[in-house]
Structures are given as C-alpha cells and as structure tokens.
Description:
Radius of gyration: 20 Å
Structural class: mainly alpha
Shape: globular
Amino acid sequence: MTLSLLIVQLLNGLQFGVLLFLVAAGLTLVFGVMDFINLAHGVQYMLGAYLAVTFVGLTGSFLLGLVLALAAALLLGLALEFLVFRHLYERDHLDQVLATFGLILLLNQAVKMIWGAAPLSVPVPEFLSGNVRLMDGILYPVYRFALIAAGLGVGALLWFVVEKTRTGMLLRAGASNAPMVSALGVDIRKLFMIVFAFGTMLAGFAGAMAAPILSVEPGMGDTVLILAFVVIVVGGIGSIRGAFVGALIVGLVDTLGRSSMNDLLRLFMAPASARATGAALSSMLIYLVMAAVLFVRPEGLLPAKGRS
Length: 308
C-alpha cells in the first residue's frame, strides 16, 4: 500500500467511524439509560436517508431538506415512542427484541410501498462538491470532510450536553440507577422521551448525511445496526465517550482491513490464497477486535460510570 492510498483509507476509516458514532450514540443512550433494546434504531437511520431524498427533491436545497428531514425524523420517532416503545419499557428484553424486530419488517415494507424497492440517491450539494488537494496526487472529496466535521461537531455538542448540563447529569444518573433517579422525583418517563427523541434525531441525521455518498435503499439500516452494536460493546454501554472511541476503532479497523489485508497476506501466501483468505479475514476483523476487548475488559473500553 502506497502512502497516498494509506492516507485516503485513514480518512475513509475516520469518516466511516464518525457515521457509526452518530448511529451508535443514540443507541447507547437508549440502551444505557432506558435499558431498552431497540432493534429498530437502524430503521430510523434508513428513514432519515429517505426523508432527505424526499425533502431535498421537493425544496431543491440540501440544507433546507436536511433540516426538514431531521424535524420529520424527530416527529416520527416521538410518534413511535408514544404508540409502541413506551408500552415495552416494563417488558423483558425478549419482548423488546421481538416487538422492535417486527417494527423493522413493518417499516421496511412501508418504505418499499412509499418509495419503491429501487435504490435512490441524493446529489452532493454544489457548495460541498469538488475535492481538497492534500498533497501531490492525493485529492479527497469536500463532502466527506464536511461529514467528518459535522460528526465531530455533534460529538462535541453531545459531550457538552452530557457532561455539563443538568439534563446530562440526569442522563448519567439514569444510566447508573434509573429507579433511584425516579425515586428522587425526576419524571423518568419524560427523561426517557427526551433520550429517545435525541437518539432518533442522531440516527436520522446520520442517514441524511450518508444519503449523498451511499445508495438509499430498503434494509440499508440493518448492516449499520449490527456495526452500531459492535461499537457500543467495544466502547461500553451507555457511554458517549465509549461510543466515540469504539466507532473510530471499528471504522478504521474495518476500512484498513478491507483495503490492506490482501497485500499483507501476499507477503507470505500465494496471490489466490491471499485473496480468498483476505476477504474472509477482513470481514471478521471488527468481531475479532470486539472479542479481544471483551476478553480484556468485559464492560468495554470506556463504560458509563456505575457500570464498570
């Protein structure tokens, strides 16, 4: 692998990690604070992408379409919380898994009925088109830099909210001992609704920002959901810092593994064997990382306080 290709793949891994963080942050808050397993979180990522397709097409403006998509994703998430999720908070995890899995099937079919099964796309906004010249022979798309910057900005905002505000204090306390927070007079149902709305917005934002660089199609949230669970297991359940670190690790390991594993194996294997083994190993790398982290730190790298 050349230096220029390594730099590009590092940036791709960073961008993928930031995208995973936007999805995993909401999932780890819902899981950590509410002890609720929401398998439909990936569907909310998909809906964010489809809503961006619709509103960008209607308005002709990426920024306006993004704002409208976020607002619609928030309202849809609140409606789902009111109609479905709040009735599952007191149920065991198996009931939550079955109900949210059914919601995945329902919403995937609804998306096919409304938008069709064919992949859709959102054009890269004109003011974010083009490339940045990093050095001789290395160009990188402006939009991907914008996605990285947006993800880092959201991460900084989340850190401020969780670490420096009263709402964040309640979230951290809720992640450690929700019954005690409720006993102190905090409206735990309202807190859950805020957490769920936050998580929905983050998943929708991730989907809308990914729409110009990924194919928007039914089921696109399923793969992201699995990776998001790997992120929060690696980083630690209920921890925003853990989700950020875990997302960067998973994003970089997955991207660099897929791009360099074949070249690495060719150093001591025949090309055909290296290609076959590399394809298998590269798809397993993040799960090997997860297993290694769980072996050393079963609670994750940076678990929420009270969970270690």
